Structures are given as structure tokens and as C-alpha cells.
Amino acid sequence: MKKKVVAIILGLSMMSLVGCGIAATGTETVATSFPVRTEKSIIPVSEDEVEDRITDAGKAYDGIVSYENKSIDAIMLETNLMSVSDRDFKGKNREEKAAIEEYMDLVQEFRSHFNRIKIYEPREGYTIAISDKKLYEYKIADTDEILALYEKIQKANAEIPVTYSDDHKTSGAKFAKGLLRGFSNAVSGASSASAVCEATADCCEAEAGCEVAAPVENTMPAPYVEAPDWNTEEYKAFTENRFMSVQASPFSTFGMDVDTASFSNFRKKIFNGRDIPRDSIRAEEMMNYFDYDYVKPADGEKFGVTAEISDTPWNPDTKLLRVGVKSEEADLTNVSSNVVFLIDTSGSMFDPDKLPLVQKSFLMLLHNLDKKDKVSIVTYAGSDDVVCRGITCDKKEQITEEI
Asked: Kind and range of the H or E element at 284?
């Protein structure tokens, strides 16, 4: 009974026509984690079934699982496991070489779960991931095994001496350290002894009485540079519709457009273990996310109407009315599309659940486009760039490379 009340409360949140306890909503409340209404009865869903469904959905989810426990998407994007080789390491003795060999064996086992593909073709039980601008598919059922392997890889990598691993990263770190030291010296006005000697070398050779200044020790700490906050996510505040008397306000309307983003955003934040901003919840978008078997419009009509009325669980003196509207189905049989995507590629889009998720969604959309459809891609950050100009979808491999 408790779950039934929760489900109907979601419906209450999207009321547009309310009066004397009668409410009109755009869709019915049906979700896999709540009881499902049929013509005869309410079919309950057990707690164990709910947990199983959440777990299965989490394995197939495209974003990061949490900040501490990364998903396969995050691992593939943030590591070089698909390209690293034993040539990237230098073992000085038997123990170090054994540690490198153990690490590479685990990496090879990790790679065995992924198949390189050129274009996205949906297959039952499989999903996709992107690494180093390459597209891979893997079995959703292997998710737990792959994540366990990654934990072993992290531990094995910790056993490899840092001075002998990944030369390009080591040199990059040295460069960054030197750059920071030079910046610190410039800010403090101090000079190192070697810099003073180099600057005065010619002078000292030319003038016998020239003395080299004593080195000045730089005691000023390196400047603190705060990392930019790329999370600019914000939501417009809104308030619930209030109850009104139909005697005073007999006329009301509700929108016919369908938005579904709130449900996906809500699910993402739950799987990520993040706080859920109150204003990010749009109950009508969450319910409209699902498909419903609404009555189709009759011949000559523009839309069909499905209605159901019931007692209000929390107030026996009032009624709840659910109204579902279904428009005509568009006939796209002989219609070709010319799709133009304008995509933000700035730094704020680098999280696995932002631009990489757009890429994966784009690949799935591409699969559903007809050969005559055309695709154009324009990216923008500091400036705009035309990546793809009117390519027909009979060249899906080329479009996939551009994505």
C-alpha cells in the first residue's frame, strides 16, 4: 500500500487541472519499481525484484558509478589500458620485471572482454565504450568481472616502480614541475645560483675583479592555483501547482509537449551517489519517460484520450482523475532527414556522463538513420569547427570516425 501511495504522489506533482479534488495529468504513473496497474488488479513488485532491477540497470548505465568506484566507461576514457605495452616499462631487476609481467597479464585479460568495432550495431546483451578515439563493445554480463580485473590492475600497477614506468608521463611530470618552479621564481623575483653564474660568466672572464653574487635562496612557496570548477549545472526554481476551486476557476490547460530529461538525470545522480537538487526533479518528465498504451485517435480525430478516475488514497473526500492524450503517429516512410548537431566540446563537457555520453548516444542514433538521411556536425568551444558537412548515412563508418 505504501508503494501505491508513492506512485500516485508522483502523479499529483504534475497536476494542471485541479478543482474539488479532481486532477488532470498528462500520463499515468507506471514504473518498473512501482506496482503496475492492469484492468483487474495491482500487481505488486517485491523489494528483491526492485533491487535486482536497479542492479541490472546500473550495470548497463552509461555514466560513472561514483567518484570512488568508476564504471567501465570512465575506466576506458581515463586510462590507456587498451594501448599500453610492456615496452612502456623498464625493469632493472628480476622482481621489477616480474611485477611488469603480472601487470601486463592482467591488462591482456582486461582487453579480452572488448571487441573493436567500426560502427555501432545493437546486439542483445552488449553495450559500447570509447577509448582513445576507438569504439569497443562488451557483454553487460561481464561488467562485474571487468571491474574486479581493474581493481587487480590498480594493485599490480602500484608494485611497479614509478621511475621505470610510463616514460612519457614521467617526462611530462618533470616538465610541469620545472615550469612551476620557474613561475615561482619569477613571482618572488629570486634567481638560482646557476642562473646568476650563466648571466655573469662573460663579465667574469673579461674583468678580473668581477665577483659572482651569492645565490639567493627562494623561500617563497609555490603559488596555489585553484582548479577551475567545471560543474556549471544549475536548475530553474519552480513551485507546485496549488489547488483551485473549479467554481472560481473552471478553465485550465496543460502542455502537449513531452520532455523526458528529468528521469535520465535523476537516474544518473542516483547511480553516481550524488546529491539530487530539488529543482532538478520534474515529475511530469519522469512519468512521460515511459511509453503507455493510450487510445489512438479515431478516424478524422487529431488525438485520442484515455481517462481514469479513482479515490484519493490520502483524502477519501476527493477524487483523482488521470488523463492521457495520444496524438497521431507521424508517417516518416518516405521522409529523409537532414540532421545538424551543434555540440559543446569545452572543458566542462569532459566528464564521462557529458560529452562521452553524447558520443555514445549519437552512435546509437546514427544506427537508426536511413541511408538517404544526412548528418552534419558543428563543434564549439573557443571557436566553432565544422567536423562533418552533409554526409549521407550510407557512409556510417566515416560518420562514426568523425564522432
From this structure: helix 283-288
